[in-house]
Amino acid sequence: MQNTASSPFLRTLKDLQKSYFQEKQVNFGIKYSEKNKETPQPVFTTDTLDRVKQFGEFGKAVEIYVNVYSVPKFISYLWECDGKPISHNSAKYELNYNPTIVVDKIHGKEVQLDGYNVTLSIRDLKADNFANYTVTLKSVFADLRHTIILETASVPETPGNFSKTATSTTTITVQWDPNSSGGYKQTFYIQYRVQGLLKWRNVSAGDEDINELKRRRTYELKKLREGRVYELRMFSENTAMKRSNVTDILIVFTDTSESTTSSAVIGPVVGVVVTLVIVCASFIVILLIKRSKGKI
Fold first, then answer.
1. For labelling, which of 9, 140, 163, 203 has a CA lying 20 to 30 Å from the CA of 238?
2. What is the pLDDT of residues 164-194, one digit of tens each?
3. Please, are residues 3 and 109 in contact by the beta-carbon 8 Å criterion?
């Protein structure tokens, strides 16, 4: 066990087991064995439950997996493809499991637990290999099952809503909305050039993991030339080396220092003029008051 000593509600191994299991019981409806209420049945970790879909490519090998917390260890396991059992080792498949540290959450706090990584390797993927794979863990308790949908990795979709948000004399800030990554981690790239030039410059504008929540992204291009017209476009590329189409070209002007200087000069001038107007108006009012009293 790791990273548990600092949590006041996790004092011992038994407390950890019971606390972890009780939360899973609430979230997933798992029940204690009537024979032994001190020890829970195996449970799949949250990262496994979040990865219902996994991805592979035609003609290549893929490894699909689940992470499980099991104390004591499960007795055996079985993989099935669309309901048909898979033999333990063959020219097509290889089944394995290894002790590993699994990460999960208890009462909203991340903990590391001694668990197991149960894997199924599939060689030379064909069309009929993209199917539903179910792993069954057998223990002294009821069987525990989890199904993974294996889909073909695809080209990522073009980023959406690519637009300008701000400019200065040497910078342009843009925003976009990530779309489908094609089943792999994707990296966003912005291309830009001064209008009229042929060569594009590329800059990496960040990545997105496959389980990361979609959110609007922004990026600031720096060290640009002032008062120039720039052409910008972007695309994404995933770790399967598949690239999206580029966005439409965005035309953006950087600011000029003349406009900034003019604003800096105009401001004080306007202030002086307003002050003079106020002084003159005050002087006229005083003269009118004196005249009305017959002093002039």
1. 163
2. 999 999 999 999 999 989 888 999 999 999 9
3. no
Q: In 3D, which of 44, 4, 1, 52 has the Cα closest to residue 21?
A: 44
Q: Is the pTM of this model over 0.85?
A: no
Angle (CA) 184-244-129 rounded to 5° is 45
Q: Using the structure block, give the residue that is written with the tokens 């830009």.
A: 192
For the stretch 90-98, contacts whose Cβ atoms lie closer than 8 Å and that sit 24 or more positions apart, written own/partner, are 91/123, 92/122, 92/123, 92/124, 93/120, 93/121, 93/122, 93/123, 94/120, 94/121, 94/123, 95/119, 95/120, 95/121, 96/121
Tokens 């439950």 locate to 49
State which H helix or E strand residue 4 sits in: none
Ordered by where they begin, the domains of the chain are: 13-152 (2.60.40.10), 160-253 (2.60.40.10)
pLDDT digits (tens, 9 = 90+) for 191-238: 999 999 999 999 999 999 887 889 999 999 999 999 999 999 999 999
